[in-house]
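Chapter review: from sequence to fold.
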Amino acid sequence: MDTLICSRKACHAGARWALQWNNPKLHTPERRKTWLACEDHKETLAGFLSARSFLVETIPVEELPASP
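The token string follows.
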């Protein structure tokens, strides 16, 4: 598996968390977009998504499905 990097701008740390989200104005309810987060940025990114009611769940990156 390739190293997954945090989605926070200018962060190059390895991701430990996958923030699963969706914008209900743009996406169907089952659609999931993913932001990756290191330990330092997990709360910041989750807060941004939660404030917009976009955050669906946060899971460890190990639980992400494998890419085809």
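Two observations follow directly from the output. The helical segments are 42-51. The chain has one domain: 1-68.
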